[in-house]
Amino acid sequence: MRTISTTQAAAKLGYSDDTIRRQCEAGRIPAVRVGRTWKVSAEWVERALLKLRGGSTTVTR
What we know:
Blueprint lengths: L2 E3 H8 L3 H9 L5 E4 L2 E5 H11 L9
Antiparallel strand pairs: 1-3, 2-3
InterPro entries: DNA-bd_dom_put_sf (IPR009061), HTH_17 (IPR041657), SinI_DNA-bd (IPR010093)
Organism: Sandaracinus amylolyticus
GO molecular function: DNA binding
């Protein structure tokens, strides 16, 4: 799984870093914890962007 930081995911998706981190902690975004930080699935972020832009791809874990 290719990953990006919560800060990078937040910038791409237009949300705050805290929102992305809380969603990772709740298990709503596929991510792994590395030390004290979260790494978000880059593929999931790309699918979420498609959905936000009106694409037909369903965003799932």
